[in-house]
């Protein structure tokens, strides 16, 4: 048996430059979405008593509300991440430019949440805050502090975990020669 030669691209520089980068970006996006899903799911469960739904809904309705809101949270998280990457032209994210992307994505998430809370509490009347919900006055409206804090804490934690993972990956790579 002879040696097996590795399969290489006829254009090694192009495949090395594009392939691994896109793989890293897709892996980073999937990790961001999964970690966000876990964080937002836990937050949605914990903050349920801050809405009147907690006292009036059946368990099935509560479960649906948590899953529905978590699904929305995942869509918001991925949207604000992609918008931040595009606006900053941070094409090397997550390998580089992670801090500027996080610094833009987190306020985008908070701003969208303030708008969504206003829309769903005051315009659509989709949900009602319980008296236990702490609120902040924004443009004359009482907006739930818990959902605003959610969009500060969960994404910050997710970006921190991604930074740790990025550090481990960078340390495990062989030096380039």
Could you tell me how far the N terminus lies from the C terminus, measured between alpha carbons in angstroms? 31 Å
The number of E-state strands comes to 2
Largest sheet, in brief, is: 2 strands, antiparallel
Q: Any idea what the shape is?
A: elongated
Oligomer: single chain
Count of discrete alpha- or pi-helical segments spanning 4 or more residues: 5
Spatial extent as radius of gyration: 21 Å
Determine the mean pLDDT: 89
How much of the sequence lies in strands comes to under 5%
Main sheet: which strands, in order across?
1-2
The residue fraction in helices comes out at over 70%
Uncertain parts: 4-17
Number of domains: 1
User: What is the chain-wise order of helices and strands?
Assistant: HHHHEEH
> What structural class should be given to the helix and strand makeup?
mainly alpha
């Amino acid at each position: 048996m002879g040696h097996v030669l590795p399969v290489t691209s006829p254009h090694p520089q192009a495949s090395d430059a594009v392939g691994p980068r896109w793989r890293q970006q897709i892996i980073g996006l999937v990790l961001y979405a999964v970690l966000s899903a876990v964080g937002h799911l836990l937050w949605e469960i914990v903050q349920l008593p801050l809405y009147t739904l907690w006292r009036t809904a059946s368990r099935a309705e509560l479960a649906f509300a948590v899953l529905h809101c978590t699904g929305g949270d995942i869509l918001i998280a991925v949207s604000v991440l992609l918008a931040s990457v595009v606006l900053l032209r941070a094409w090397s994210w997550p390998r580089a430019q992670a801090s500027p992307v996080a610094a833009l994505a987190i306020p985008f998430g908070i701003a969208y949440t303030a708008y969504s809370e206003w829309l769903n509490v005051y315009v659509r009347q989709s949900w009602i805050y319980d008296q236990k919900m702490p609120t902040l006055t924004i443009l004359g409206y009482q907006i739930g502090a818990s959902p605003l804090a959610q969009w500060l804490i969960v994404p910050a934690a997710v970006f921190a975990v991604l930074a740790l993972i990025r550090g481990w990956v960078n340390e495990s790579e062989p030096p380039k020669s």
